[in-house]
Amino acid sequence: MTAFFSEYAQAQQVLAVSKSDTLFPTFNAALKDSMLHGLQLFLKNVVLAPNADVRSFYDSNQTFVDAKLATLYGVKAPASGFGQVQLPASSGRVGILGQAGLIAAQSQSDRTSPTRRGIFILESLLCTTPPSPPPGVVVDLPNDPTLTMRQVLEMHRSNEVCAGCHASFDPLGFALEHFDPIGRYRETENGLAIDATGSVNGAAVDGEAQLGAALRQEPKVLACLMRNFYRAANGRVEDDKDPEQIKNLVQSLSARNYVWSDLVADFVASDAFRSAPALPVTGSM
After folding, report:
1. pLDDT tens for residues 27-52?
2. Fewest beta carbons within 10 Å, which of 74, 78, 117, 269?
3. How far apart are CA 101 and CA 131, in angstroms?
4. Which of 95, 275, 118, 278 is nearest to 196 (CA)?
């Protein structure tokens, strides 16, 4: 189950990203390994702990750090190795979207990307595929040291052709703007105050902590999680008979007080897992 949630969060991507050596000299292979390991410990010992509410995936203030991550997160380092810590409210960091490894993986090498982060949330956590950019649209944004990334994107969105697509994912990504390209908290960018206001399905949020709290309560988020679990457990994409089974999974999770291990026990005993779809006859016996 830790492997499933790790894949769901695309955790391994942090190992493949690179950052500007000039801007982020501490971002190296050792830090990337710490980011991945800390994220996996968070999943195993917080989200999937005995009797834990799996919705803590989105808004828990508990995580795991070693000395490298503690410096990045601004918390006290454990005496050795990794230790569990409670993140202060001042960190602005909760749940999976507060994990530095995920943030770094969904950023550019030298700047943040509200668009990339927003698309990740939209596709992975809300199971919604955004439209492709219209033909001929310039998607490379200027790097203006006098503006915040939000301001650059707002100028880009002034083009009506671009605005329609960006309206579906940028408000999600803007909520993460307090985190720089390696997942470090910041109050300003280029000397300007960060504006981390955004929205989830029309509900206003300000910062990642509020975003995590909103995702915890959003029905579409749990339905998306169940859809991905259903696919992973059955080894196939759902067909037209499966949506009702996925809906039943959401109801079962709620009835089980959101304890993941109890949900899994229900699922493996159900027809949704024990019965395979019929295969077409392709030849005579």
Report:
1. 999 999 999 999 999 999 999 999 99
2. 269
3. 27
4. 118
d(CA 236, CA 99): 29
The domain of 12 spans 2-217
256 in a structural domain: no
* Rama region for 235: left / alpha / beta (φ>0; ψ in -120 to 50; rest): left
Q: What is the Cα–Cα distance from 96 to 6, expressed in whole angstroms?
A: 10
Mean pLDDT, rounded, of the chain:
91
**Structural tokens at position 263:** 């949900």
CA-based torsion, 144, 145, 146, 148: positive or negative: positive
Q: Is 224 a member of any domain?
A: no
Number of domains in the chain: 1
Q: What is the DSSP string of 46-105?
A: IITSTT-BTTHHHH-SEEEE-HHHHHHHTSPPPSSS-EEEEPPGGG---TGGG-HHHHHH
pLDDT tens digits for 247-272? 999 999 999 999 999 999 999 988 87
- What's the token pair of residue 102? 């995920």
Q: What are phi and psi of 259, to 5 degrees?
A: -85, 115
Residue 149 domain-assigned (yes or no): yes
